[in-house]
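Here is one chain, start to finish.
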Amino acid sequence: MTTSTHGHNTDNVVDLFSGKPFSDEFNRRIIRLSPELDGLEMLYANSAHPEKLFSVRILCWGLRADGEVVGMVPWLNDIVPCPDIQDPLNGHWQGYYDASVDDMFTEPPLHKVIELETAAEYYSCEEGEAEQANVIIQELPDSIGTHAVLAGDGSRTLVLKEVVSWRLHADGTLYGMLIDDNKVETTPVLPGDKSLYPATKENGFRYYFQHHIANMIKAEDPEAMAAMSILVDS
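Its structure:
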């Protein structure tokens, strides 16, 4: 079920689960996540290659407070809803893709919509929690091999670190969680571990890369290394 309110006055719009009015910005926040476990992808195009479509794996599906369900992908330095992606080459969303049946579509899978709506109603925030950034709603393991790119201290180097999980807070903020090796007490490090910290809190944080790009960098692929050089100089 979708109750998108783009381009409309939301003075009379209320949250589906709390029944309370909300602002345009507040109603777009993510309130619940569901992992993507069937390998569905996001398709996008950009102005540099208008004749091509590119794909990246979807990390999870997110339910906004206004009822809209969207695919979520790590994109540049954030995790964003697929329809909202932007990049320097004017990248824009084209739809979702199921490679197993060669099917492209623009609406989220119905089973994910039902799952998210049901879970959001069952696990709804207590009154007053929705605006509290310190209240953790969910933490999902990263299932697509996301890596964070960090600038080395005082040097022209970049470091790749695996993202262990993604943490959703009650105010809608989402953080990719990295391991602080100095705080590890038990292994393997799982979502919720005390040694995890948000990638975006790292002073040297630059971007998120999915595993195939990270593996190209580790293998010193010339094209990937050239892109890394640009990041170092930026």
